[in-house]
Amino acid sequence: MVLGCAKNHVDAEEMAVRLEQAGYTVSADPAAADLIIVHTCGFIEKARRESIRALMDVVSLKQDAQKQKEDEREDGTGSPKILVTGCLSQRYPGELLEGIPELDGLAGTQAPRDIVDLVRRILSGERVVEVGPPGRGAPGTCGGEISGAPGLRYRPQSRPWAYVRVAEGCRRRCTYCAIPSMRGPLVSRPLEHIMKEVEFLSAAGVREVNLIAQDLGDYGVDLCGKKLLPELLLRLSDVPGISWVRPLYVHPDGVSSQFARAMARSKAVPYVDMPIEHGSARVLKLMGRPGPDRIRQAVDTLKEQVPGIFIRTSVIVGFPGETRRDFEETMELLAECEFHRVAVFGYSLEEGTPAASLPDRVPPQTRVRRIREMQHLSTALSRQSSLRLEAKVIDVMLERPALQEEWWAGRGVHQAPEVDGKVFLRIGPASKAVPGDIRRGRVSSPGLLNLWAREVAD
Ligand code: SF4
What we know:
It is built from 14 helices and 19 strands. By secondary structure, it is an alpha/beta fold. Bound molecules: iron/sulfur cluster.
């Protein structure tokens, strides 16, 4: 069971492959399992509650199984074991062990690397608690050495896209963020390992790779003191079979002319997810983030050098000390930069972060009111961006046949997986299509996130 972000999903794939390579059978059905792994998220309050809920569901499943076994055999053995891993257990091991005595094992963010040993010990009856320093070195490694990577990808489904994690952890210290305390310092994967993994994925039918890290723009700084994302984009464009490369989560300080040029000259789609978090210079300073001028410069660089660029972003509303004027400055900057999509988050007080001790907390009802206002703007910007595509001919990567005959569901370059909606494309009756095909469609009706289009000849 995996909660949280795309990085956690890549972790879960790695754990599944390592366990299968060690001879275990991996099942998606907790009721059929001898051991259930719950890979958690500890990012913000809302995500933590979701992880706890998932854990409690598994605990009641275990209790039901125990009761059933007791009825049958009077000794309660044979019920599933529970191992909790990931960010929540990295951050709150003591609280989890105390609050959920039914746990048979607890491990932190290094668990994907050590999963075989953890499972073997728990199944042999040991109650295992392993929480090391946050993070675990580069993904796919075993204490730095390579073990079976790049094949540590679990490909049960035939979806033509995949997330590829290029680094773990973060070297920045945004004052509201607890991620470095869970995921550790920046550790980049050697470029050659990423190349091998993408070749492996391409051979497995993947046509779009979505590059992920806490801060993609910083990729490589720990390896050789320079930002390697531009080089990575150009190198990935040489991998046969890969059509699209999508950079997700680039800090504004990671946007340079070199990066934008590499975007324009490679198989990178004209799309970037660049969180700005706020629009007020005063609040951005309190957050430890780049100011509005640096944000404008990053946006201008992308718009000038990457034709047709779509920029997704995210903002935090209700940061301590945020005044009405600060909030309005954020709205103004978003409208001025015409962001394609805006994800809106309410400030979540994270204990142990510098922002948690800042004065002048924004009252909850004010925060909720501002979130609603910001979501109105976000919707308007999304609609505006979709309307600009009306009657335009766009590339669509096909993902699966839609319910209606002759229609396929897919995505355009402006749509990242799982967050930006779909394109429903009508293709000719005789047209043979497979997932990963890229077809051209003229947009007939733009919805807020989804688009409808008809295939046009090349
Ligand atoms: S760059 Fe992202 S992950 Fe790193 S500290 Fe800032 S918000 Fe957290």
